[in-house]
Amino acid sequence: MSSPRWPCSASAPFAGPVVLGCLAVASCGGDPPVTPVDPQPEPDRPAALTIHAGDGQSATAGTSVADPVFVRVTGRTGAALAGVGVGFAVTAGGGRVQFATATTGTDGLASPGRWTLGAAGTQELRATVDGLPPVTFTATAIAIPARIEAVAGRDQQGFVASEVAVAPEVRVTAADGSPVPGVRVSFITDPAAVIAGADSATSADGRASAGSWTLGPTPAVYWLEATVEGEGITGNPVRFEALAVAGPAAEVLLVAGDGQESEVRFPVPVTPRVRVLDPHGNVIAGDTVLFEADGGSAVIPSLAETDSLGFASVEKWVLGADPGVYTLTAGVLEGDETLASATFRAHATPAVYDIEIVFRKPGELAERHRTAFENAERLWERAITGNLPWATLRESELKECLSRGGIDLEPGGDRIVNDMLIYASLELIDGGGGILAAAGPCQLRDGSYLPIVGTMRIDLADADGEHLEETIVHEMAHVLGFGTLWGRLGLLRDSVVNRRGNPHFTGDSAVAAFARAGGARYTASTLVPVQHLGGVGVWNGHWRDFVLCNELMTAFVDKGKNPLSIVTIASMTDLGYEGVDIAVADEFTVPADCTSSDRGRAGPRRAPGEAETGAEILLAPIGVVGTRGSEIPHGQVNNPGYPPPPRRPRGGGRGGAGGGGGGPRGPG
To answer: Is the confidence at residue 378, as pLDDT, over 60?
Structure first.
């Protein structure tokens, strides 16, 4: 007999147990199984509201903040919730937002759009979601800038490629003068300069700085400008300027005067000169250079300041008493530290007599002309070996000397002379056969009255004859004092005045040499006989032509050799020169008769009544200078034995220089 079954009804009493019973019965009774139904999940709810972006910004009052503000809503699981309504409200500052409400997106973010700030000061924006604590954004509304001004770093000076000492700084203020913080200030500078920061925000006291400002690599005025955005801002933009100067010294260049040679106890011919550069190759002006000479040499002055082009030089570097190598060090000092230095070297040679010739137009000299001058110079440097004191000739004195000698040349500044300086010019004077030359001293040393500067002019029309070199030797002798200083030194007696006189040279050395050369038999006048015919500039300044015949220092040129005798060389001792070497003289014997037909003159001698040519010896005042070059007051002397010179120096002809014909020698 089967058991009874209870209907499986939800309405049956004890429905719960019945269901279980039914299930059990069904399970046990073999009916199909019933699958249970899962309950529906509960929806996620907002659990957190947080600030996502845009907090803590600043902007000018009445303007929007730069970045939009966002909040984020997450559920209980921490996942972003979409579709959540968020309310936005300005709670401080008086600003406004674009949207008062917003709905979160799938990322859980919501924004009110633009947030426009209110009056200057702190701003607050509150975001709310029902059932959650609110969040608050803060911002600062900046007062509207009314003025910008520089407060530090204007008008500075510094080294190139270096930072200025004070960083440029500005202050931004409102209309009432109160500082405006948080304002963006833009800084721009000269393209060659560098600033640390292009943009800066003003601090609480309204100040902003570009940081370090490094000037450019070349000396110049560099600029920097500070700008605030906005209209009508007083002082906007602010301009800063800074002067970049060269320095510090990094290199001393030897510009001139290194590797020279000069005599002992004599200044080097080229003044030592340096140039001072900084690490970037810029010249440095105003630096002090210390010059230190060693080994007994001396420098004047020892300190010099670089000029606007960076050059510094000394006046003189006088070498020591012993032959050898001397050094001169030029250094730029900073305190006890030497920033940069360089050293000159010069070689001192034994003292000798030296003649320096400066030509008016050296580039136009033919080689044969230059050789003739060089040979004449060397001859007199062999004949006179005793060194003379050096002296500095001022430019004004050299100009006057050139003017007296009729030479158109600029001396180019002061000049140190040792022992003799001759300005020479080859030029057209009066054509062939007339005036061949004009020469003489124009400055004498104080005390010895020996020449230190003289001039020589040679007529180019007569410069190609066989006697050119002899003529230059002759004229150079006049520059050295032969015939030009006799009267001044008391060596001329019975000189020609008003065409009357029987002049003779009284120097002991020349008198002895004249006798040695065969002149002892001459009894017509006191020894040594001097020319008494020929006119001013010829008489009183040459050996007597009737007696010494073809000797080089007579007033006429003879065919063939015109020897330089021991009489002439010895007369240099009487002038005061030391170390005179008569061995340099040519073979010469005073002829017994100068009227013999074998003398070799090209033409008849000029008779006393014939017309006279102009002076061979240059007639011009002669100055007297001390060793430092200053002309001694009232020191001018006229060429001795002559009347006062004419207004313009005259010259005479040295006839026949081209073909050996007779005639007076040209001005010398």
So the answer is: yes
Q: CA neighbours within 13 Å on the CB side: how many for 187?
A: 24
CA 148, 153, 157, 161 torsion-angle sign = negative
Judge whether 135 and 164 are in contact, CB under 8 Å: no
Q: Which of 290, 496, 499, 458 is nearest to 361 (CA)?
A: 458
Closest CA to 659 of 588, 615, 600: 600
Task: List the one residue out of 571, 362, 360, 356 whose CA is nearest residue 483.
Answer: 571
Residues 6+ apart with CB under 8 A from 259: 345, 346
Count Cβ atoms below 10 Å from residue 77 Cβ, excluding itself: 8
List the CATH code of the domain at 147-245. 2.60.40.10
What is 46-142's CATH number?
A: 2.60.40.10
Q: Under a CB-based contact definition with an 8 Å cutoff, are residues 460 and 481 in contact? A: no
The region that residue 155 occupies, defined by phi over 0 for left and psi between -120 and 50 for alpha, beta otherwise, is left
The confidence score (pLDDT) of residue 584 equals 97
Angstrom distance (rounded) from CA 289 to CA 252? 9
User: Helix (H, G, I), strand (E, B), or coil: what is residue 367?
Assistant: helix
Who contacts 551 (Cβ-Cβ below 8 Å, separation ≥6)? 543, 562, 563, 564, 565, 567, 568, 588
Once rounded to an integer, what is the mean pLDDT over residues 567-585? 97
CATH value of 251-349 in 3.90.199.10, 2.40.40.20, 2.60.40.10, 3.30.565.10: 2.60.40.10
CB 310, CB 332: distance < 8 Å:
no
Q: What is the pLDDT of residue 299?
A: 98
Contact call for residues 454 and 420 (beta carbons, < 8 A): yes
Residue 425 tokens read as 């010019």
Q: Do domains 147-245 and 251-349 have the same CATH topology?
A: yes
Q: What was the pLDDT predicted at 521?
A: 84
Residue with more model confidence, 655 or 283: 283
Read off the pTM: 0.58
Note the residue count of the chain.
Answer: 668
Q: Where are the domains of the chain?
A: 46-142, 147-245, 251-349, 355-625
Rounded Cα gap, residues 456 and 651, in angstroms: 11
Closest CA to 536 of 649, 449, 424: 649
Q: Tokens representing 301?
A: 């002055």
In 498-630, where do the E strands start and end? 504-505, 623-625
CATH 3.90.700.10 for domain 355-625: no
| Residue 170 · residue 154 · CB < 8 Å | no
Contacts of 654 (CB under 8 A, 6+ apart): 435, 436, 437, 462, 471, 474, 557, 616, 663, 664, 665, 666, 667, 668
Ramachandran class of 535: left when φ > 0, alpha when ψ lies in -120 to 50, beta otherwise: left
CB of 240 within 8 A of CB of 158? no
Q: Measuring CA to CA, how many Å separate 656 from each of 458, 563, 617?
A: 14, 16, 17
